[in-house]
TrEMBL record:
Cofactor: Zn(2+)
Highest taxon listed in the record's lineage: Bacteria
Similarity comment: Belongs to the histone deacetylase family.
Keywords for this protein: Hydrolase, Metal-binding, Zinc
Matches recorded under Gene3D superfamilies: Histone deacetylase domain
Protein name: Histone deacetylase family protein
Domain Histone deacetylase, residue spans: 27-337
Length: 341
């Protein structure tokens, strides 16, 4: 299997994020790239550098205002006397029916849902390379590869069409899905990250050509809190094309795999032309977030079950998964499972 990644993604290094009113070390660290690369190599992947694809594939899912904000916010923020070295929102509109503001402070509130995704001097460059990694992963699938893996970092599934949050800026899985639609009109996105993929859900919520299915820790007391509940099923033409499968905290392999079967049955019924797997590895029993309890064998079984159920062209896009001794091993296990004949 080809694995795409660029070390230019490592430049983005926001050291802190605001959690529970306290500045903590940001767990979305560049070291994740090294551990995941080792995991991909151990799975037998060949490594490939992504190309610069410009804004075209990114603009399929993100708004022009949002792209301009992300590109220029850091420089504009720097004109504010005494401002921090990273753009962090301190005011947010409670609804989005007011005026689009001119001030970078207010635009930060408009385009950033929380304080976990600061914009630093290197953020723009890294998020572009993360998105282009997703584009070339989709390109591999478009040109005949049955499977390809994109080591995208920062992750993307919490980013909506015009809002960053949860360490995410560009929604790499959505960008891959939209890119695949050049050749494959019906795409399913299966999100197995510990957290609900609220950005992906928002982007496709009114559409029936992209099915979004997410298995995650119950958001009733877990990020992203406001979305990810089972009652959210899509709207308009998209009604019935969004499925959320929340799980109790600390759910382990057996119960998880039973829920995965429910997800796969729904995706089979949709009969997709191509599949995007939003691969968070933070459901691991050793992940610092501690939300679910999937073992390395469990990750292998998740890969096996997907491969057995959905033999369509598949782009695997890296989402979350934070530093632990088995982060890379979990990726190896998952990819090996996915390649099981
Ligand atoms: Zn996550």
């Amino acid at each position: 299997m080809k694995a795409f990644l660029s070390d230019k993604q490592a430049a983005h290094y926001p050291e802190h994020f605001l959690e529970n009113g306290v500045f903590e070390q940001n767990p979305e660290m560049p070291e994740r790239i090294n551990r995941l690369r080792a995991g991909a190599l151990a799975a037998g992947c060949s490594l490939h550098e992504p190309q610069n694809h410009g804004m075209g594939p990114i603009a399929k899912v993100h708004t022009p205002e949002y792209l301009a904000f992300l590109k220029h916010a850091y420089k504009r923020w720097g004109y504010i006397k005494g401002a921090s070295d990273a753009v962090i929102p301190d005011i947010r509109p409670t609804t989005r029916d007011g005026h689009y503001p001119a001030s970078v402070v207010a635009q930060a509130g408009y385009h950033m849902s929380d304080a976990s995704s600061p914009i630093t001097a290197d953020t723009w460059d890294s998020i572009c390379w993360s998105a282009w990694t997703a584009v070339d992963t989709a390109n591999a699938v478009l040109t005949g590869d049955k499977l390809a893996y994109g080591l995208c970092r920062p992750p993307g599934h919490h980013a909506s069409a015009d809002i960053a949050g949860g360490f995410c800026y560009f929604n790499n899985s959505a960008i891959a899905a939209a890119h695949l639609q050049q050749k494959y009109p019906r795409v399913a996105i299966l999100d197995v990250d510990l957290h609900h993929g609220n950005g992906t859900q928002q982007i496709f919520y009114n559409r029936d050509d992209v099915l979004t299915v997410s298995i995650h820790a119950d958001p009733v007391r877990f990020y992203p809190f406001f979305w990810g509940h089972a009652a959210e099923r899509g709207a308009g033409r998209g009604l019935g094309y969004n499925m959320n499968l929340p799980l109790p905290r600390k759910t382990a392999d057996a119960e998880y795999l039973a829920t995965l079967q429910t997800a796969l049955t729904r995706i089979e019924a949709f009969a997709p032309d191509a599949l995007v797997i939003a691969l968070g590895l933070d459901a691991s029993e050793d992940d610092p977030f501690g939300g679910l309890s999937i073992s390395p064998v469990g990750f292998r079984e998740i890969g096996c079950m997907i491969a057995a159920s959905l033999p369509c062209p598949t782009a695997v896009i890296q989402e979350g998964g934070y530093l632990s001794d088995i982060l890379g091993h979990n990726l190896t296990q998952f990819l090996n499972g996915l390649e099981t004949p």
